[in-house]
């Protein structure tokens, strides 16, 4: 857990809400979590199967590209790496895309991430949280209930899909929802990687 404020960020104690489209309303009967892409066999897990996976508790800093940072939110969830037990990855898999709902489309939102950055306790599909002002509570529908990805603090928060619906394993990097719209593929707040290089004001320095 890091106390460092990345360049161009300010600290907030509130947890703002930002997303495109409607808030997804959980329906256990139709919900599942899909593991697909460059895997030997694709898998869909029910809500019950997902919630039976081992739990991890982690305290993470969140850095939103709109310049707010929230330190030390404690999350309970399922570590990204727990899902790897269900699939046999093609040996050349290096990237993933994590999907979430957008206006009723379960694959409408997505963000790309490098696989090797997601093996720790700080890459978490979360369902509960607390901080110094709040006791344990479920992630609210607006923050991504029933399951929401929180990326390690070395990525801006748009890499964290709300209403998470699956993971696609990929050999080559591929832009997600915001990356297709000019945001950074790598998105490291400490290097201030907000936008794609081609539109960065630093490009020709
Ligand atoms: N499904 C989905 N997930 C999403 C988004 C979205 O529009 N749809 N927006 C992203 C963006 S741009 C941000 S900054 C964070 C905001 O998370 P919060 O509202 O919980 O603070 O969610 C990310 N996850
Ligand atoms: Mo965002």
CATH superfamily: Oxidoreductase, molybdopterin-binding domain
Mean of the pLDDT scores? Answer: 95
Instruction: Report the major sheet.
Output: 6 strands, mixed
Sequence stretches where pLDDT stays below 50 over 5 or more residues: none
Rg over alpha carbons:
16 Å
Number of domains: 1
Number of E-state strands:
11
Can you tell me the CATH topology?
Answer: Sulfite Oxidase, Chain A, domain 2
Number of helices: 1
Organism: Geobacillus icigianus
InterPro entries: OxRdtase_Mopterin-bd_dom, OxRdtase_Mopterin-bd_sf
Pfam family, one: Oxidored_molyb
Protein name: Oxidoreductase molybdopterin-binding domain-containing protein
